[in-house]
From TrEMBL:
This is 7-carboxy-7-deazaguanine synthase. Catalyzes the complex heterocyclic radical-mediated conversion of 6-carboxy-5,6,7,8-tetrahydropterin (CPH4) to 7-carboxy-7-deazaguanine (CDG), a step common to the biosynthetic pathways of all 7-deazapurine-containing compounds. Belongs to the radical SAM superfamily. 7-carboxy-7-deazaguanine synthase family. Its EC number is 4.3.99.3. It comes from Flavisolibacter tropicus. InterPro entries: 7-CO-7-deazaguanine_synth-like (IPR024924), Aldolase_TIM (IPR013785), rSAM (IPR007197), rSAM_sf (IPR058240). Residues 24-238 form the Radical SAM core domain. S-adenosyl-L-methionine binds at W61, C62, D63, G98, S150, P151, K152, Q201, P202, E203, D204. Pathway: Purine metabolism; 7-cyano-7-deazaguanine biosynthesis.
Amino acid sequence: MNQHQESKYRVKAIWKTLQGEGLFAGRPAVFVRLVGCNMWSGYEQTRQRDAERNGGSCPLWCDTDFTKEGSQDYTAEALAAAMQKVGGDVRFCVITGGEPLMQLDYTLVKALHKAGYFIAIETNGTLSLAERCWDPKAEKLEAPDWIVCSPKLAVPQLQLEFFDELKLVVPDYKPEDFDAFVGLQRINKIHNHTLPLLWLQPEDGARLQEARKMAIETALAHPQWRVSVQTHKILNVE
Ligand SMILES: C[S@@+](CC[C@H](N)C(=O)[O-])C[C@H]1O[C@@H](n2cnc3c(N)ncnc32)[C@H](O)[C@@H]1O
Ligand SMILES: Nc1nc2[nH]cc(C(=O)O)c2c(=O)[nH]1
Ligand code: SF4
Ligand SMILES: [Mg+2]
């Protein structure tokens, strides 16, 4: 790409809310939902087809609209400015999707760091972070500060190099199937006090009651794992 062609990011929504899930649940955040996912088209008619084609069941129960309808394109600087307009003083952001690693790159991470954000992302683990966040000029990784991975394929098919939190949606994903992946959890100051950040999140939807019961039973049988409740749905915020 030459210097006159700036990368643009297709954004479904920017909003200020509370992080609903995981370690930072309850914390005010600016959310950015990027358009597009490599597991599902985002359209109701292809849930079944995409689950079969992509070998992961999440299209069957994904709770999110990340389609291009109503989206807007931003350069990295314009997105940072729009986030500051929406979020005011909030300097914790969550980049999600869809699958954010289809679009997020070192240019965007750099712009958000320059704007003072602590950057968290929510990713399905199927894509490499290092490939997108390697800054060839600076010869270093310009990576988000906090990586939450909710894996959607089996371990041999995952490309993510490291993460800070691991979140399995129950019942389709089970602790015993991710033993080999848990070791990629990054150790840092926060982890030293709270290890391990391993979550079991009940699948919301028609099977919620059953999924909750299984998450509770699984945590009691595998005490390294904790249950994650989607608190934004209880508090009735987006
Ligand atoms: C919509 S995804 C977007 C980020 C990324 N594509 C991923 O799957 O991690 C955000 C989070 O919501 C979770 N999620 C999606 N649908 C859900 C559902 N019906 N019940 C519980 N968690 C769900 C995902 O597992 C993920 O942790
Ligand atoms: N409040 C709130 N917290 C969230 N944490 C992860 C979310 C996501 O969809 O990635 C999410 C979301 O959609 N809303
Ligand atoms: S859960 Fe994540 S990976 Fe699965 S379809 Fe939804 S956005 Fe895509
Ligand atoms: Mg959500």
